[in-house]
Amino acid sequence: MVPQSLFRRLLAVLTLAGAYSLGGATLAAQSAASSATPLSLRDAVARADARAYANRIATASADAQSAQALAPYRGILPTLRAEAGFVRTTDPIAAFGTKLRQRAITPADFNPATLNFPAAIGNRSAGLVIEQPLLNADAWVGRAAAGDAAKAQRAAAAWTRGSTRTDVVRAYYGATLAAEKSATLSVGERAAFAHVARAKALADTGLVTRSDALLAEVKAGEISAQRIAAAGDAAHARRALAVLLGEPNSTYQLPTALPESDAIRALVAADTSDLEMTDRADVRAATLALSAARADAWRAKSLYLPRLNGFARYDWNDPTGFFANARSWTAGVMASWSPFSGGSELSEIRGTAARERSARAQREAATAQAELARAETREKLAVALAQLSIAERAVAQATEAHRIVARKYDGGLATISELLEASAIETQTRLGFSFARYTVLVTAAERRHALGNDPAFLVALDAPTSSPDRASR
């Protein structure tokens, strides 16, 4: 029989050896993490606002639509144009007219032979032309349609930025959750190896059978496999966050644990009340798109109205230079009306009417979806907070149960299966507690987004720092 004091020394040595081997395995990962850029949620949101692919695409689309909104001014604002050209001709009419424009006609030019067979003559012409639309109804109505379409695209871009912020919250805390899961499993792995050492030591003394030690090793191997998978998930989550932020080659140093449950509750509990929506950007975009479609339908109908345009020009004609010789001017007003243009107006009217109906349906769908999201996220947040409380109690209960079973095992009153089961239950409850906090955080962001508010309000949780080894408690 091995003396009790020697048994305790052996158990301590085995436990320390297991912890040392686990610590050495993570040394390289910790060294790599130390060279990464520390990233808070506030930093992540700021980076996404500036560089996220979805935001950049939405902003560029809004800029393009804003530029397109200037096109109708072609039928409203004046056009100023400068012209210059050179021509040489022996055409009788063109030659006589060119010489007349140059103020060079003499009596000899009226000779029939000269009129019929003029010598080649060259002319350098120059002109300044201004054209002023006076009444183009389609341009004025089209301006309103294009303006509303540009505003709708801006609102859609704003909704995209809000959605991206929600995705950033999900990805940021998802990566943190993966890191906390890995840390929790590392703690469970150390506990499992401690159980292995304990079972082996007791088996050597004859207090338990060898099967106890074998079962403990099997369980420790299972937890080791879970920890390795969790470490891989954490690395992938960090890479996915970098891609979301538009910085795929960046490496970030994230918190090792999610915010404390009390801080989460204090920040999000008020959102479980029946709050009214603010001006949701997607609903505003749909409303503006409907307004643009209505205006475009009126623009199509206005194609049947007459047009009235004015113009004025100065012209110079000289055989040797541009903008030389005496100038001449011309001014006038032109009215035009096309009651039928091959059916193109009818096509425009029918097409714009169909787009108006589509825009109306989209606005109704956006409004209904917004109301549904408002109610759904309220219920989801209330459920998530209730699950958080349950998970928090479960951790305390499982920890105490594990402690009791461990003492019973040392006294020979519990089997190794019971001890391993208690250890596994504690680990699983801690993982469940982590996931419950993550669920509340993501649901709270979705709730704010559904109400038309900023989902990045969770940056307030950056200030209270969490203990890196909280999962080991």
Q: In a nutshell, what does this entry contain?
A:
The protein is an alpha+beta fold and 473 residues long. Helix content is 65%, strand content 11%.
Which properties best describe this structure?
single chain, 473 residues, alpha+beta, Outer membrane efflux proteins (OEP), 2 domains, 4-stranded antiparallel β-sheet, two-stranded parallel ribbon, 6 strands, elongated, disordered N terminus, disordered C terminus
Question: From the helix content, strand content and strand pairing, which structural class follows?
Answer: alpha+beta
Shape: elongated
Share of helical residues: 55-70%
The major sheet is characterized as:
4 strands, antiparallel
Strand order of the largest sheet: 2-3-5-6
In CATH terms, what is the architecture of the largest domain? Up-down Bundle
Q: Got a strand count?
A: 6
Radius of gyration: 40 Å
* CATH level 1 name of the largest domain: Mainly Alpha
- Strand fraction equals 5-15%
List the helices and strands and how they pair.
Layout: H1 4-25, H2 27-34, E1 37-38, H3 41-51, H4 53-68, E2 79-89, H5 92-101, H6 112-116, E3 121-135, H7 137-205, H8 210-244, E4 252-253, H9 261-268, H10 281-302, E5 307-318, E6 327-336, H11 344-410, H12 416-450
Parallel strand pairs: 1-4
Antiparallel strand pairs: 2-3, 3-5, 5-6
